[in-house]
Amino acid sequence: MHILQLGGILASLATLAGAVPPAALKRQVSQLRSNYDFVIVGGGTSGLTVADRLSAAFPAKTVLVIEYGEIEFAPGVFDPPTLWITAAPDQASSWTFQSLPNPEMNNKTAFVLAGQVVGGSSAVNGMFFDRGSRFDYDSWTEAAGPDSSGIRWNWQGIFPFFKKSVTFTKPTAAVAQKYGYTWDVSAYGGSTPIYASFGPFQWADQQLLRKTWDELGIKSRKECAGGDKEGVCWVPSSQHPVTARRSHAGLGHYADATRPNYDLLVKHQVVRVVYPQGLSLGPPRVEVRSLADNQLFNVTAKAEVVISAGALHTPTVLQRSGIGSASVLGAAGIPVVLDLPGVGANLHDHSGAPVTWEYTTPGNFSPLPSDMLDPVFFANATAGFDEIPAQGPYTMAGGNSAIYVSLPHMTTNKKLKSIIKKIRDLASNTALASSYLPADYRTNPTMIAGYKAQLLALANLLSDPDAPSLETPWATGGTAYGFLLHPLSRGTVRLDPADHLAQPILDYRAGTNPIDFDLHLAHTQFLRKLINTPTMQQYGAVETAPGAGVSGDAALVEYIKEQIVLSFMHPCCTAAMLPKAKGGVVGPDLKVHGAKGLRVVDMSVMPLVPGSHLSATAYAVGEKASAIIIDAWSHGH
């Protein structure tokens, strides 16, 4: 079994590296067909999933994916020659974004990275392959309200597509016993060549924090991918179980899915979609720009256009098309085709500040990341990665461990009630709730209604003892980041009015809703408690940040403002799946409100960010969207 898997992934790697270019790969307009049934804008995680499924389901229909990037080899987050996780690891091409200064966070900016390559962000991310809790996805339908479509995006509705989207491989019995890995195969069950697995290596002090979390009363879970996630979790990596190479959409949904009806056009930018005969007569034409010579041409879709350009580029494709907020379009000099103010709104992401410490009593742990500086250890680690199966440090990606803790389990009942009351009171106060939105939305009743619905859903989520509010991933000791999983502040993604083809302007607006500081404060105060656990004291742990000199809520909030990471690279929700009356952009069928033949399928459609890294959810959304589209076209549309 492993030899067959190995042969498959090596063939895929060779194809993607360009050694054996597939016939379906196109680089110029002259190579395209006269028209296509389905045109997919963006060859990322969700887009390639849809392309794979549609081309398989409809052999007589043609599918074209248009991708800005190129086919590239995509190394893992911790592949040779990396010594350890670095600020600039060897990786495939990426988009980099820098947000506007954030006044509420001492004018800090958010740095965001996204894949500019076939495979999208699955080809450049941290390979941490977790899912949100069932309560995260239930909150989507709660925020949207009653719907008559019959399409459900709650946990029950999306869980089968999580299972379908990935093939999980159990570790060997010896490896499982050595590290204490646990899992439940019932959370998986797919046969898709997108792989999840645990590596045969962990740093020696990894168990130290597991003991610490236990002493803080956080229970270990056997499996965290089945909907119940509050506790200490083992999280698989998105990597092949034999080679430990990165598993991503460019491999599993393109290189492994070559079909005569599936074309991929690289190094081209979709400028906009055009409705020459009006919005009711879709699908639209797709206007494309060649990056080689800057020439424009149109691609005709006979069935549908699916925009899968990601949470930061999908809004700009729509805005260039005249679909978006009338005020935003007017400022950019773009005629309004469809006034949808939710396009580019509702931007949010995970953020958080660290608690750090040093050990004053030697633990004599070995190996540790510092051992990578030893030439012999480094050479052995590199050689181990090339073994079959792969061995050693380079098999562990960024780590496999995290805690997910609910607000009721980290703070006092009094503080919990105070925070939840603030959120509910805000949701019932239109004037106050609207004051926390971007200025041009504060008088828009649909945007206000949508935000108030989100606040109520978040109040229920945060008050649930089984719904995590905090994530802290780790692979080795010394730093614990407090990921805020459910922020209340909302930002924007907008065209650059001076250059419509330039990178969009991101305004994160983190902390504009002050309740976010209550949540950050609760998280940081909880994480500081780890220093005083018996295990940490055994090794003489001393807090280095915030440090003993930072005490009291006000001082700690200032520390958070100064040290916060504004983006853990999980931007979302900028074309939200909400009713139009709540500022939504797409419905449960992912069709753009009022635009025939146009859907959006990527992380922009989420109304609320789930408490997880987004890769697994992006695959599941792609799988569910594919099923929706296939069902529609299998029954006469």
Automatic annotation (TrEMBL):
One of its GO terms (biological process) is secondary metabolite biosynthetic process. The active site is at H570, H613. GO terms for molecular function: flavin adenine dinucleotide binding; oxidoreductase activity, acting on CH-OH group of donors. InterPro entries: FAD/NAD-bd_sf, GMC_OxRdtase, GMC_OxRdtase_N, GMC_OxRtase_C. FAD binds at T45, S46, V117, V270. Keywords: FAD, Flavoprotein, Signal. It comes from the Eukaryota. SUPFAM superfamilies: FAD-linked reductases, C-terminal domain, FAD/NAD(P)-binding domain. Residues 1-19 form the signal peptide. Belongs to the GMC oxidoreductase family. This is Glucose-methanol-choline oxidoreductase N-terminal domain-containing protein.
